[in-house]
């Protein structure tokens, strides 16, 4: 009987440690994503776009897109003037989409697209989406991940005139 009680306590401790470990990982994941969202700025998005051009799309020009809600559905809109763009409204929309089920759909919150007319590029790198997990733009399609949503509705094409990097 004493041995049965002892095993029961070891099992409880092991289960408690497992729950604590999983909970800690979950808390860290949500905490890092919240930090990414709360620190998101125009400067960070443009710097990440420059990084994307350097590392993933050399010699290209890329445009920045932000999500808007169009009749209850998300749609990416080309950011034509970064200085005039309201990043706070875009950040709030991203938050509401994630946590308030507002404007649901398969559309990225922030994205990049390579401008038309540039040098040839692998199609997997023509579009990138913002990752709150990685704090940067990642290709829409990659070796270690499946396709990320770009926009449910067709977005205005990227032209060199509206490029934010490259």
What does this structure look like?
By secondary structure, this protein is an alpha+beta fold. The chain has 3 helices and 5 strands, in the order ααββαβββ. The protein has a 5-stranded antiparallel sheet with strand order 2-1-3-4-5, with helices on one face. A hairpin with a 2-residue loop joins strand 1 (62-70) and strand 2 (73-78). The chain is elongated, with a radius of gyration of 21 Å. The chain starts with a helix and ends in a 27-residue tail after the last strand. 26% of the residues are buried.
Tags for this model:
3 helices, 166 residues, 5-stranded antiparallel sheet, alpha+beta, single chain, 5 strands
Architecture blueprint of SSEs:
Elements: H1 2-39, H2 42-55, E1 62-70, E2 73-78, H3 87-99, E3 110-114, E4 127-131, E5 136-139
Antiparallel strand pairs: 1-2, 1-3, 3-4, 4-5
Proportion in β-strands: 15-25%
The order of strands across the largest sheet is 2-1-3-4-5
Query: Biggest β-sheet: count, sense, barrel?
Result: 5 strands, antiparallel
Q: H/E order of the elements?
A: HHEEHEEE
Q: In DSSP terms, counting alpha (H) and pi (I) runs of 4 or more, how many helices? A: 3
Give the overall average pLDDT. Answer: 83
Q: Are there runs of 5+ residues with pLDDT below 50, and where?
A: none
The span between the termini is: 73 Å
Count of extended strands = 5
* Rg, Cα atoms, Å: 21 Å
Shape: elongated
Structural class of the helices, strands and pairings?
alpha+beta
The helix content is 25-40%
Give a quick precis of the structure.
The chain is of the alpha+beta class and 166 residues long. Helices cover 39% and strands 17% of the residues.
């Amino acid at each position: 009987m004493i041995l049965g009680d002892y095993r029961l306590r070891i099992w409880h401790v092991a289960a408690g440690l497992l729950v604590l470990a999983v909970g800690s990982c979950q808390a860290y994941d949500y905490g890092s994503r919240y930090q990414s969202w709360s620190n998101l700025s125009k400067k960070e998005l443009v710097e990440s776009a420059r990084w994307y051009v350097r590392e993933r799309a050399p010699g290209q020009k890329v445009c920045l897109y932000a999500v808007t809600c169009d009749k209850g559905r998300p749609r990416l809109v080309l950011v034509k003037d970064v200085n005039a763009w309201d990043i706070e409204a875009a950040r709030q929309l991203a938050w509401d989409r994630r946590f308030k089920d507002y404007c649901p759909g398969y559309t990225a919150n922030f994205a990049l697209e390579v401008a038309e007319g540039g040098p040839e590029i692998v199609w997997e790198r023509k579009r990138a989406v913002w990752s709150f997990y990685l704090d940067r733009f990642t290709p829409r399609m990659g070796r270690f991940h499946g396709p990320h949503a770009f926009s449910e509705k067709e977005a205005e094409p990227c032209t060199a005139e509206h490029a934010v990097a490259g």
